[in-house]
Specification:
Elements: E1 9-12, H1 28-41, E2 45-47, H2 55-64, E3 73-79, H3 91-98, E4 103-109, H4 112-118, H5 123-139, E5 143-149, H6 151-157, H7 159-172, E6 176-181, H8 188-202, E7 208-213, H9 220-229, E8 234-237, H10 251-261, H11 275-286, E9 303-304, H12 307-315, E10 333-334, H13 342-350, H14 361-376, H15 384-395, E11 403-413, E12 419-429, E13 432-440, H16 443-455, E14 466-474, E15 485-492, E16 497-504, H17 507-534
Parallel strand pairs: 1-2, 1-8, 2-3, 3-4, 4-5, 5-6, 6-7, 7-8, 9-10
Antiparallel strand pairs: 11-12, 12-13, 14-15, 15-16
């Protein structure tokens, strides 16, 4: 696939199809932020919802026009007119005009089964619904994109009728015919063959062919790429693959595959480096856990753990990386573990003390310490902040920002079944003692709040820090409630994120170790930043 001059329209449906994912609900403010992020990335279209479906979308469309978009066209989404109802009298059809978008996206039925059994109308009336609805919007000066819902299933059951629905859309004035794998069950070879036939039949200077794939069979990205190979020039999907059921085609995978490997133009080349931050920003706005194993944009996408792999990457990046991570705004990570290899561990050690060599006594001691701690249950590949603190302590380059005198946890369980916890923390900073207490939903929550409350007296910058994730792993289930646990805490100050780890047979103590490391990482990071500015 070499198509250096061929432009692919990227149609983002995160705010419409993505919002249908379980656990995702965008506020109006969320949607406005996402529009700005997507426009900066450089997608061609942003599908922003259905103004006739709910008051939230009505408010959004009223406010989004205040944004000055530089790259993307906004499009409102809706269905064909109702059966036996003129388009001009259909309330939902008319509501799309209130969105005041230059483009509208209309979906209609391509599968005869859906026409007769779901819509419960005739095949001919469905063709009229498609044709007349699109004509209505063309007469109002809109660009019209037609989503042929269930097209691949419809084609496999009744190819003649499926093609008739596309013909009706062209007659109505569609500029793009989007073939939808709505149930997400098509195979890549099927998508290629059917798309190729549609391209040969309908594609012209006035009409483009597109693809809209769902991921129920785990093939949404592959199906989208095969459609492009068959001649489609319009690709719909969502950031991070958000969507109903198993999600939609992931644009964060599709875009770099097409642009960096297949020679297509999807977004402005200079914006490709924004792909990772875009994926993470939208996940943060959606308030969902980011999939770190996502291709291209996940933390694990360019993470190397095995010693042989790390050695190969250090010698020639292409030996174990299919692209340079910087191209998509990501970075290479060499993971800390007992299998990482001496050269990798040495590089991490030299970040703290550049004078260390592979033959240094301290290097050998720290490698042995790492193996010992991992044997005890520590895992530093996901908690490098704790590892750096460990190195500093071993090398004598560590000054504690505070000393714990004691902490106490009190738990209460009421007769009505509600539980609460209180924590008291007493610590010392530069000879000054501070004692504070706090309540929480549980012992760890109470301890976290009490620790912050005490430290913020001396270090107000910690007010910016909050936990974004808390994980507990039982390490040896055979010892039941006496098992060791590993606690991983992810924290952020709004700019950076970091992860720390603690291990103990006591979940409170393991949590305390990780909490303290989290606070000290932030304080140490800020101190080093001030020193760099001063120097």
């Amino acid at each position: 696939m070499t198509n250096s001059l061929k432009r692919i329209q990227i149609f983002d449906s995160t705010l419409r199809d993505g919002a249908q994912a379980e656990g995702i609900s965008f506020s109006v403010a969320d949607k406005l932020k996402i529009v700005a992020v997507l426009d900066q990335l450089g997608v061609s279209y942003i599908e922003a919802g259905n103004p006739g479906s709910n008051p939230k979308d009505l408010e959004f469309f009223a406010r989004v026009n205040e944004l000055e978009l530089k790259n993307a066209k906004l499009t409102a989404f809706g269905a064909t007119r109702r059966k036996h109802t003129p388009a001009r009298d259909d309330r939902n059809v008319k509501s799309l005009l209130t969105a005041n978008t230059p483009t509208v996206t209309i979906f209609g039925k391509s599968w005869d089964f859906h026409v007769t059994d779901i819509l419960q109308t005739t095949l001919e009336e469905n063709l009229n619904m498609i044709r007349e609805t699109l004509q209505f919007f063309k007469e109002h000066g809109k660009e019209v994109i037609y989503d042929a819902e269930h097209f691949f299933d419809g084609y496999k059951h009744n190819p003649e009728y499926a093609l008739q629905t596309l013909r009706a859309a062209v007659e109505g004035g569609a500029s793009v015919l989007v073939l939808c794998d709505t149930n997400g069950g098509a195979f890549p070879n099927e998508v290629y063959e059917i798309t190729k036939l549609v391209v040969e039949e309908f594609a012209s200077d006035e009409v483009a062919v597109g693809i809209h794939a769902h991921n129920d069979g785990g093939m949404a990205v592959a199906n989208s790429l095969m459609a492009v190979q068959a001649g489609a020039v319009h690709v719909q999907g969502t950031v991070n693959g958000f969507g109903e059921r198993c999600g939609n085609a992931n644009l964060c995978t599709i875009i770099p595959n097409l642009q960096l490997k297949a020679g297509y133009a999807c977004i402005p080349p200079e914006q490709m480096k924004r792909l990772t931050v875009t994926a993470r920003t939208i996940a943060e706005i959606a308030n969902v856990q980011f999939n770190e194993r996502d291709p291209y944009v996940g933390k694990s996408a360019f993470a190397h753990k095995a010693g042989m792999h790390i050695d190969g990457v250090n010698k020639a990046a292409s030996s174990f990386e299919h692209i340079a991570p910087e191209l998509v705004g990501n970075e290479r990570r060499l993971l800390m573990s007992e299998v990482a290899g001496r050269s990798t561990i040495l590089a991490k050690l030299q970040a703290v003390d550049p004078t260390l060599t592979k033959d240094s006594v301290e290097t050998e001691q720290l490698i042995n310490k790492l193996k010992e701690l991992e044997h005890e249950g520590y895992q530093f590949e996901g908690a490098e902040s704790s590892f750096r603190l460990l190195v500093r302590k071993h090398l004598g380059k560590y000054r504690p920002f505070f000393n714990l005198i004691y902490f106490k946890i009190i738990g209460d369980s009421n007769i009505n079944g509600s539980c609460s916890s209180s924590a008291m923390v007493k610590l010392e900073v530069d000879g000054q003692e501070e004692i504070t207490a706090a309540d929480g939903a549980g012992p760890v929550h109470a301890l976290d709040r009490a620790l912050r409350k005490a430290l913020e007296v001396f270090y107000p910058e910690l007010k910016k820090v909050h936990l974004t994730d808390y994980k507990v792993r039982v390490l040896d289930t055979k010892t039941a409630t006496a098992s060791k646990v590993r606690v991983l805490i992810e924290s952020t100050d709004g700019t950076d994120s970091w992860t720390t780890v603690g291990v103990s047979t006591d979940i409170i103590e393991a949590s305390w170790i990780a909490l303290v490391d989290s606070m000290e990482h932030k304080l140490l990071k800020d101190m080093e930043e001030k020193m760099r500015i001063y120097l």
